Description:
Strand content: 15-25%
Mean pLDDT: 76
CATH class of the largest domain: Alpha Beta
Shape: globular
Subunit structure: Interacts with UvrB in an incision complex.
Number of domains: 5
Family: Belongs to the UvrC family.
Distance between the termini: 75 Å
Main location: cytoplasm
GO cellular component, one term: cytoplasm
Number of helices: 20
Helix content: 40-55%
CATH architecture of the largest domain: 2-Layer Sandwich
Function: The UvrABC repair system catalyzes the recognition and processing of DNA lesions. UvrC both incises the 5' and 3' sides of the lesion. The N-terminal half is responsible for the 3' incision and the C-terminal half is responsible for the 5' incision.
Number of strands: 23
Amino acid sequence: MADPSTYRPSPGSIPVEPGVYRFSDASGRVVYVGKAKNLRTRLSSYFQDLAALHPRTLAMVTTAATVEWTVVRTEVEALQLEYSWIKEFDPRFNVRYRDDKSYPYLAVTLNEEYPRALVMRGAKKRGVRYFGPYAHAWAIRETLDQLLRVFPVRSCSKGVFNRSRQIGRPCLLGYIGKCSAPCVQRVSADEHRDIVDDLVAFLEGKTTTYVKRLEREMKAAATELDFERAARLRDDIAALERAMEANAVVLGDGTDADVVALADDPLEVAIQVFYVRGGRVRGQRGWVADKAEDSTPGELVERFLLQLYGESGGESVPREILVPALPEDHDEAEALTELLSELRGGRVELRIPQRGDKRSLLETVTRNAAHTLRLHKSKRASDLTTRNRALEEIQVALELDESPLRIECYDISNLAGTEVVGSMVVFEDGLARKGEYRKFAVRGSEGSDDVSAIREVLRRRFRRRDDAEAPAAGTDPGEGPDAVDAPDTGPMPDGAVDDAAGRGPRRVDPETGRVRRFAYAPGLVVVDGGQPQVNAARQAMDESGVPDIPVVGLAKRLEEVWLPDTDHPVILPRTSEGLYLLQRVRDEAHRFAITFHRKRRSKSMTDSVLDDVPGLGPARRKALLAHFGSLKKLRAASPEEIAQVKGIGPALAASVAGVLASKRPGAAVNTATGEIMES
């Protein structure tokens, strides 16, 4: 490992002009390329205290042996040179976005005498028009099958085409009308080219014009009593409409735009792009990359756009690009816009949508990016070799006697100290065991803050650690009504049980008749938080008689691993598989706690409104909510509609409607008449 001070340039030798720099290792291989508005300021930041550097930046400066730079005149030149160097040297520490999968395109080979339409993957070729990308190849084939009814272009391979030309008979598609059969000269090359041009125009988004033209021809054929042609045109219109249904209209003004969104964590970033042409989503694509340093969203977007449009060529740059963030420096943002405009050969608008349909679409793309990142992390976790390495890294870093094959993680969720709940998630061999999840309702002064709540949840969990015998399912002598510890086995999407009443169903072993609570003691306990939460968990576990089970805390801000009664955390490398696993366990516990808390909060709000209805017990309250689906719909119902619910008579229905109306914002009750008045 090199010492950065051995190759640090003297401060006076570094210019203050804009430029591009590159770090190289001892063998001369370029390991990082960057650009700066002020080279001296930027390069000096790499040679500060090593402890203050991002872990990946630290790895880069200790791998490098030399640094060089080139001064340029403008920001645009800096962008161009940075991209060309990254493309030439492929530095290992630069962010390189890689596809999360290989995407297929619908391609039209305009460079051939008789162009054809087909599914293509891989590198793009000159003279070929690409549409997409699509998520699945079958989606392209279904769309193409519909379009070939109307645009019977060639879709066969060169071998099939030449064979049909030799024997003088078309293939099956020519006989069923899905190819104009230029191989046997049913149409000339020019006529076939016209059909191809119509197909390309339709795929470019000029759909309405073409459909209206077919409608006019259909009406004209019907007027001339040519009903056979009119029926064929009618079927063509229906086929086009089915093909158009696959691409939803998202922008009503027919905009051509690329919508870019990102989702990141301290280690990785996922980018998602929706390609909108003619107001319709024509395709989408996703990338995932390791983060090289603490980059802002604007810097990540800038590097991504350079890679996306630099590799695909200027013809793929749309007129408008919607992004979640721009470079913080105004000059850098202007330089990026200017460079993209040069690539396109026309003005490009690069902006952040603030409201309306475009803002809603950006939020949709952002959700897709977040899903891509989660899927990427789950794929890492599903690999057996990766999971084993993660467990071994945790064992070494925490100095455990053995690999923690069972990890339990706890998190607390509350709203200003109310509706305090805890969650427990279980990972065995690096995989989630949702059937072993538990939820805890923490009531009273026990859960006045996160530390107290953690202590109470851990105390209750380890008090129930044994497979003790119990009289029957659903009973638990010696425990109060606020003990939940409910297994995650119900009908929720991920198997969670709604135990808002304070207790969930118990699992009973069919052979022994005993209540099964916890399979066995964990190899590691993780709590969401820092040193206070860890110390509270350790105290609760000691009081419960399990001092030999290790416990750690994972703090969100810097992803530090805290041990009990220590002054300094354990720092796992940002690329560590062990850290990935701990993060995933912690995030799952947080998700599970939030879900449970939201359910309890929603139910408590509903119950507080209906509690004031005289004669309305829990069973009838549940029947009302089941019938109407929500409190909002119940509030909008009339007394007659409420009375249709089983068990609700006219008098009780009137009481329900009256109480709900009186609790409506802006409503008041006339104490003399009982009439509801709106303010």
